[in-house]
Amino acid sequence: MTSRAGPASRLAMTLTLSGTEHSVRLARQCAGLTLPGVGCLPSVVADAEAVLGELAGNAIRHTASGGPHGEFSVEIWQKLRDGRAVVFVAVHDQGSATCPQVRPVSETAEGGRGLLVVAGLAQRWGFTPKGTGCARMVWAELDAGHGHGCPAGDA
Questions:
Q1: For residues 9 and 62, which has the higher predicted lDDT (pLDDT)?
Q2: Is the predicted pLDDT of residue 134 greater than 90, yes or no?
Q3: In Å, what is the CA distance from 26 to each residue of 16, 38, 79, 137?
Q4: Could you give the CA distance from residue 113 to residue 109 in angstroms, rounded to a whole number?
């Protein structure tokens, strides 16, 4: 795990893990330990952990990251956007033939609500293709508020 402060962010945590369920739990735990250490409120930490769990879970269930020798990377950083502190959570996966999107889910379905959870907790979310293959970064931006939630620093 690497943490670094930079001109565009208050915190950045970078972590690369094998594409397993255990790694999803480990990524959530790392976020849960890192964000309170920079002053994030428990509610912001909980939302970031939930979003990270959904994005990382999708990476190992629906992309090559969950295959043999698969892996995914996590980045979390905090910055200012329009005078508000935001926590940016991103998962870099090894790609698939389909794009991440919220899909209709029946009331009795046992799964398929992950991106609905992300959309409900995040101000914005989306994905950005990486390179020439199918790999991409799926990201979510969480509101950390004005002067509370997480310190904004000079970002």
A1: 62
A2: no
A3: 11, 19, 24, 19
A4: 9
Query: How far apart, in whole angstroms, are the C-alpha atoms of residue 117 and residue 98?
Result: 19
Residue located via tokens 């995040």: 122
Q: Count CB atoms within 10 A of the CB of residue 22.
A: 9
Contacts of 74 (CB under 8 A, 6+ apart): 13, 14, 15, 16, 17, 27, 30, 31, 52, 56, 89, 90, 91, 92
Q: What is the C-alpha to C-alpha distance for residues 90 and 125, in angstroms, rounded to an integer?
A: 9
Among 102, 135, 139, 136, residue whose Cα is nearest residue 122? 139
3-state SS, one letter per residue, for the chain: CEECCECCECEEEEEEEECCHHHHHHHHHHHHHHHHHCCCCHHHHHHHHHHHHHHHHHHHHHCHHHCCCCEEEEEEEEEEECCEEEEEEEEEECCCCCCCCCCCCCCCCCCCCHHHHHHHHCCEEEEEECCCCCCEEEEEEEEEECCCCCCCCCC
What pLDDT score does 49 carry?
Answer: 95
Q: Which residue has the tokens 């998962």?
A: 91
Per residue in 58-84, pLDDT (tens digit) is 999 999 999 999 999 999 988 888 878
Position 23, amino acid: S
